[in-house]
Specification:
Blueprint: H1 3-12, H2 16-19, H3 33-38, H4 44-56, H5 62-74, E1 76-79, H6 87-98, H7 103-108, E2 119-123, H8 127-133, E3 140-145, H9 155-167, E4 172-176, H10 179-183, H11 187-201, E5 205-209, H12 218-230, E6 235-237, H13 249-266, E7 271-273, H14 281-294, E8 307-309, H15 312-325
Parallel strand pairs: 1-2, 1-8, 2-3, 3-4, 4-5, 5-6, 6-7
Helix pairs in contact: 1-5, 4-13, 5-14, 5-15, 9-11, 11-12, 12-13, 13-14
């Protein structure tokens, strides 16, 4: 990395000291309906104004932008969740994760080592394939479980799937909630289900997908976020990527403020994962700005923030090549993620 780019990275992104700080896992807490009642009111117009001003007044250019985009890569859950996934496709994704940037980009940016995504995210049948392909890389394997994307299978069936993914080597489990429990304000039932998933995960980290595009109101998003954290979620996640509306900045702002509220009450760090529709380098920068402004620099590390991404990596590679050459390359010049 050039001296200038190195300086930009150190200035804008978390220091080694904060990055190495040990995060105590969220053990959960008893369901507090009084706390939920106190958080029922969400001001949509104020949230939207906050998002607009936040993204407009932050302009990240040149070396600073390249540094932030490299950070975006390190925060990705590189994902394939298609109905036609095959072991070969998963192996290709894992090979891309191991050798993320083309050699000429690594050399041109003077990076000391290759930049890797935080995790590979796959369906359960491909967990063992991914674990084998990533052995020794330090890249996590995340499995989507619990009848993804709808979450409507019987509870015991969903628990069996979680345990099977953990047994195959997944160290992160992305579960999806039945959205009907939120519509019916069945908070105890939702809490009990998530707590059961947390227990089934064992040492694997639990990411709870809310399916925010289906939840209709920001109030529902806020309350579902709080219940998930009370039940022991390590991360809360916006979307499956299959809804008609996926990750949006106003929804993200509601969720990170719920995380901040939980942190202030308990002292526990909860991670956040926006997923679905984040496909451009510019959008990744907007999310990084939101995290830094609302939660601070500690939440710009992979143990507390992830992007659910499939096509995002290609656009970031194109932007980094433009940074070096002044020209945008065709997408086919970058190996598909």
């Amino acid at each position: 990395m050039t001296a200038k780019l190195q300086a930009a990275t150190l200035h804008h992104l978390p220091t080694a000291k904060t990055a190495n700080e040990t995060i105590r896992r969220n053990p959960g807490m008893p369901l507090d309906l009084g706390w939920l009642e106190a958080m029922r009111h969400v001001n949509r117009s104020a949230l939207e104004r906050r998002v607009q001003t936040m993204t407009k007044r932050r302009s990240i250019k040149a070396d600073n932008q390249a540094a932030w985009l490299l950070k975006s890569i390190a925060l990705m859950d590189l994902t394939t969740l298609s109905s036609d996934d095959t072991p070969d496709r998963v192996k290709r994704l894992c090979a891309k994760a191991r050798n993320t940037l083309r050699g000429d980009l690594v050399a041109g940016l003077e990076l000391e080592h290759q930049v890797h995504p935080a995790a590979i995210c796959v369906y359960h049948p491909f967990v063992a394939t991914a674990v084998k392909a990533l052995d020794g890389s330090g890249i996590h394997v995340a499995a989507v479980s619990t009848a993804f994307p709808h979450g409507l299978a019987p509870l015991e069936t969903r628990l069996v799937e979680v345990r099977a993914s953990v047994a195959d080597g997944a160290d992160e489990i992305d579960i999806v909630i039945p959205r009907g429990l939120v519509f019916g304000a069945r908070w105890q039932e939702l809490y009990d289900e998530i707590a059961a998933f947390r227990e089934a995960c064992g040492e694997a980290h639990l990411k709870v997908i809310l399916g925010t595009g289906d939840l209709v109101t920001l109030r529902n998003v806020m309350l579902a976020s709080m219940v998930a954290m009370m039940a022991g979620a390590d991360f809360i996640k916006t979307s499956t990527g299959k809804e008609s509306v996926n990750a949006t900045l106003p929804v993200g702002l509601v969720m990170v403020r719920a995380i901040r509220e939980y942190f202030e009450r308990t002292g526990l760090y909860i991670g956040f994962k926006p997923a679905g529709g984040i496909s451009t380098a510019k959008s990744s920068l907007d999310w990084l700005v939101l995290m830094r402004e609302e939660l601070g620099r500690r939440w710009l590390e992979p143990d507390l923030f992830r992007f659910g991404a499939s096509s995002l990596l290609t656009d970031i590679e194109r932007q980094l090549e433009h940074h070096l050459t002044g020209r945008y390359s065709a997408g086919f010049r970058h190996a598909m993620a």
